[in-house]
Structures are given as C-alpha cells and as structure tokens.
Amino acid sequence: MLFAIPFYAVACIAFGTIDPIFRDAVPQWNPLAWDFTQARQIFASLATGPLRGVAVRTVLYVACAMAICFLIGFPIAYFLARHAGKRKLLLLVLIIVPFWVNYLMRMLAWVNLLSNDGLFTRFMRIFGVNYNWLDGSPITVVLGLVYGYIPFLILPLYATLERLDWRLIDAARDLGANSRQAFRLVTVPMSKAGLVAAGILIALPMFGDYYTNDLLSRSPSTEMIGNQIEFFLNASTLPQNGAVLVIALSMFLLLLMSFYLRSTRQQTRQTAR
Amino acid sequence: MKRNKKSALVYIVWGYIIWSLVPVIIAVIYSFNDGRSRTVWQGFSLRWWFTDPYASVFHNPETRNAISNSLMLAFATLLVVTPLGITLAIGSQRIRGRGSHVVQGLTSAPLITPEIVVGAALLITFTRLFTAVPLGFAAQLLGNVTFSLASVVVIVRARLVSIGSSFEEAARDLGATRWQALRYVLLPMLWPSVMASLVVVFATVIDDFVITSFLSSGVNSETVPLRIYSSVKGGATPALNALATLLVLASFTVLIIGLFGLSTWRKRHGERGGLRAALADVTQMEN
Does domain A37-272 have CATH number 1.10.3720.10? Predict the structure, then answer.
C-alpha cells in the first residue's frame, strides 16, 4: 500500500501535468498529419516573414505592460509590506478584490467606459482629447493588459517584500548608506528572486492572452500571437499552423518557466536559511 | 522628507485601488440603467434583471441556459477534482528524496502554464487523439479538471506539510492501522485546505473562459463567460452588465462562505489566525 499510493500518484500527476505538454507530443503520435516543412515555414515566418510583425508586437506589448505593471505595482507592494500599519488588512482585502472579479467583467467595464459615448471618452473630451480608444489602439491594448494582470503581480511582490528582513536595511542606513543606496544595494538584491518570479508569473499569461486584445481592439493591426493561435485553431482550416504556433509559444514560455522555477527555488532556499 | 515619501505612496495605493475598482462598480451600476445603452445613464430600473419578459437576465432563455451550464460545469468539476486532488497530494507527499523535487516541479507547472496553451493542447487531444470525448460538456469538464487539479494538490499539500507526520505516527503507535490513521486523524485535519480548494476551484471554473471556450461545442455548452465574451462584441443591452454582475456575485458568495467556514473551523479547533489566515488560504493559489 505504501508503495502503491505514491506510484499511483506519480502516474496520475504525470498524466495531469503532461497534458499541458501534450501538444509537443501530438506531432509524434500522428506523424502523417505533421510534416516539418510546415513548422519550418511558420518558424521562418515568425523570424522574418509575415508573422514577424505579430511576434515583435507580442514581445513589445508585453514588455511595455510589464514595465508599467512594475512601475505601479512595486510601490504599492512596498507600501503594503512596510508602511501600511493599522490599515494593512483593509488595504490587502481591497487589493485582493479584483482577483475575484471575473476578468471578462473587468474588460467589459473598460469597453463600456472607452466606447464612443462612454464615460471615460466623454471625460477626456473635456480636455480636448478626442481619441478612438477601441479602434485598434495599441495604447488601449497595453493598458488593458496592465489593468488585467497587475493584481497578479502585486500580491506575490507583497509576499516577497514582506518576508524581507528589514533590519538589514536599517543596518545599511546606520552604516552610512542613504535611502537610495540602501534600496539599490540591499532591498533590490535581496528581493530579486521574488521580483523575477512575480514578473514571470504575469508575463506567462500575457504572452498567451488573446481575449484582452480581442475585446479592446479587434483590429489586425494590434494582433498578438495568442490571436493567431486562436484564429488558426478555432476559425480557420489550418489548425496545423495554430499547433505550430502553440509549440513555438510554449518553447518560449518553457524558457521563462524554468527561470521561474529556479527563482522560486532560490527564494525558498533564502527563506529557509 | 521621509514623511513626504510615505504620503506619496499612500496616494499611489489609494489611486490604484480606485482605478482597479471603480470601472467595475460603474459597470454594475449601469446594469440598472433604464435605457438600452450601457454607457449613457437614463434612470434606474430593474428591467434588465427581472422585469423585461424576454431580454432580462432571469428570463432570457439563452442566458438561463448559460447560467445552468456554468453551474453544472463548476459542480461537476468540484466532484471530480476534490477527491482526486486530495489523493494525489497525500500520495505525492509520501515521495521522499530526489523524486520529490521532480514531483513538485511537475505539479506546479500547470499552475503557471498559460491557459491558451492548455486549451489548445486539450482541443487537439480531444479532436485528434481521444475522439471518444466529444467537445462540449464532457471535454469542458475534463479540461477544467486538468487545469484546476494542480491548485487542489498544492493547497492540500501545503496543509500536509504544516501538519507534519507526528499526528499520524502517534495514531499508529496507539494501534491504529495505516488506513485508520489516514481516515480518522489525517483527513479531518485536512478539512480547511479542502474548503479552501473548493472555493478556489469553484471560482476558477465558473470564471474560466479560455479552456471552456476552446472545448465548447456551440450554444448548448455555452457558459456565462462565453456568453459575455460573444455579446461584448455585438451591441448588447445592460442585461450583459447584469449577467457579468451575477458572475461576480457568484464568486464572492462562495468566497465569503468559504472564508466564514474557514475561520469558524479554525476557531473551533483552537487554531490561530482569523480572517487573514483564511484569506491567505484562498488567495495563495489563485495566481
């Protein structure tokens, strides 16, 4: 029995987790349906051909959204971890709330605000800004990504920063570092593993996102790789292309994931010490 | 100087909170709009909730169909995934040595795999390989089980780690069989983590869009998120806002029941940690 349970569990876990990786195996199972020329073509197209725009755009949008997320998210997490005081629980609850509000609801809320007679559009017109937000605007897509994923960044960041030993920063200050130096030389290096992990945690779903884009822009000029995958698999007669793109995306993401696993392991080692 | 910096941070935090919540609150308010517009306020009414005999959330047949599909999918997933997840957590916990790292890596991988990858993989699997599983409810159920299994395993295993092996060993020393120790000692102690995973899985499944959408077979397996998604694209009435509000209400109801249950359980069993510990339990894995 003692042996049976773990073996059974390993088999089941292997089954449960290999599923996401299944698509890498699928081509080997029906080699007839998949020939490598197609894959090579798509890869070439991603690198230099017509899909290059999509690939570059995906990376660019995600990079911008990540930068904004960190710019907003880090100060918030820092404040929660260090200065929140009595209000901490209240603030935490308020920051956790968007976690539990459906993603589509949050996007719908912005579609309403940004539409032609939406509140936000009308509000901006007061300042003379007359912008067609929902008509293939990269700004809207990036801000949509930020709005969608930032809660998922703040919480892990907060968890990392809260675990830091702040006495070390006080020590650095006592030893003559000014606050900026203490931040740069103590806080950042100590929380680096956590920062990387939290960043990857939101980068992964952003790279695979297609619905934000679809809801907020719907224009081919802002398409990301997720849109292409969704299009090829659900709406076209070329599911092979979709599958190849999924492989390309997951190879890229696997790289990020291994970084993630490494930095979380680093983090647990640090806290264990 | 220091005070200034701190107060600047306070503004950022409150600014963020307002920015993150107000659009949603506005969307909820507009579900009570009297007109057909989701953007221009025309007075208060309940027509998109109850009174309109065709277009309101509780009367429109398509919306009702989506709601029942969503609930069925969520409960079916819970029924499958909870026992499976507990078994796997206990099993994987018993693996010692080098294997344990591998197992831990494997269980946390699905948690961070983007849904589009899982969805696309499952779609290909069900349409090419296991063609016995038809797209629609069955495929959606299996897909959601695959996706949410990992969170149950992780939550339950965290609890197992904090319990440690001493209680089970004590039971064994007092003459319990291995099965009895598991059944009467370990399982009751797992209860908070089971509750937490019920909440998390319910919320994940009822909110899930990508996997459910990849594996749906058209109108008869349309869930609430799918319906919201397809109607945002067309011009829709405030009934859409009402439907989305309903979805939010569903997850918050379950969350609050879960938090309440967790903290009463903790209190009754003399474990420390009130609301905050319970919150930590349920939010831990939501990312």
Answer: yes
